[in-house]
Design a protein that fits this description.
The chain has about 425 residues and is an all-beta fold. It has 1 helix and 31 strands. The longest helix is centred in the N-terminal third of the chain and has 4 residues.
Length: about 425
Amino acid sequence: MNPTLTRACGAGVVIALAIAGMIANRTSTVAHAAPPAAAESPVDTVPGMPQVVDPRNLYSETAADRMSPEVRADLERVYVPNLRSGDVYVIDPASMKVVDRFKVGIGPQHIVPSWDLRTLWVTNNAEGRTDGSLTPIDPLTGKPGRAIPVDDPYNMYFTPDGKSAIVVAEARRRLDFREPHTMRLQYSIDVPGCPGVNHADFSIDGRFAIFTCEFSGTLVKIDLVGRKVLGYIRLQMPATRFKEVTKGPRFKAGEAWEPGETELCTATRGMPQDIRASPDGKRFYVADMHADGVHVVDGDSFKQVGFIQTGLGTHGLYPSRDGKRLYVSNRGSHRIHGPRLSNGGVTVIDFATEQIVARWPVPGGGSPDMGNVSADGRYLWLSARYDDMVYRFDTVSGEVQQIKVGAEPHGLTVWPQPGRYSLGHTGNLR
């Protein structure tokens, strides 16, 4: 049963709700069928891609007890790229202290685990320049190596077969497929209809990927086998979104958090950010900073089928270690460069019902952005983009601890993580 949206934001087109009360509850009413009692047929994956162990849960091999032998000797660290200070801070999660810091290239955006789990790449995209680079970090020692010159590496992913790194050249509207170790260019796919090409996730069989287009409110679907664009869709905006109040009330420790009052949405297009697949691979969830929620998209038909309103400035998406919940970070602002101590927080969505089951505030205000879940699943680590901090949320209680880092932290990663291989970003492992 798929709900339709109330109307396109600012478009003035009104469509009947399929189920009453969706907006009042601020959650999607899309329902998942109960998983079958018996295992489904094996997934027919692309050649070279590791087998899907459980077709009902593509995150099955990222559970807390699924640590790969390749990473067991790696240092337990949190690596934080600081965009404006041009460095990486290294946090020891046991002591909750910064234990190292080092300079990297210009404009470090994300820390990206390689497909084979043996390198952590810092994507230095040098926005507005031509001297971008990738800095390798050895996870055994936590030390950086010699940077490799690469044009505009805003973000980076890996094809499911491990044969290519996909450098997301955001300013160029281009995806550059490169040899995953030397970063030698193999081929490129132009995405002219995707200004601000940004984040991605992959189909369960490895045949296609969906990328978000930050500056047009659209998505682009890429045929990874045929090496071509399959199409674009424009995300539909909700009728209302959360009101941004610069000096509004901020929640104190122990208080329940609600994102705040809503207002008519006057934005003409969304600003999609992170994207993650559902455990069964059928749906894709798309965080949208302008819509203040998560769009639900059917992967095969490439159509929007729902929307879940989560919080102001929705940005990052992270599955829990058991694959049952989706942690959603909300920056607390609609702006790319928002104010300090915004009304940000984390919303927790149950995958099976697509209902919100918890909300975690940052006491006093904050800007949860990007990161990942600890190996044991106990903590959600997120950068505080506007506040020069790192947050550690307890995934049971929602309690927050904070660590001061460099200027404008962005796509941090927690390492090591469970899983057999990495699809990139801040640790999209499977």
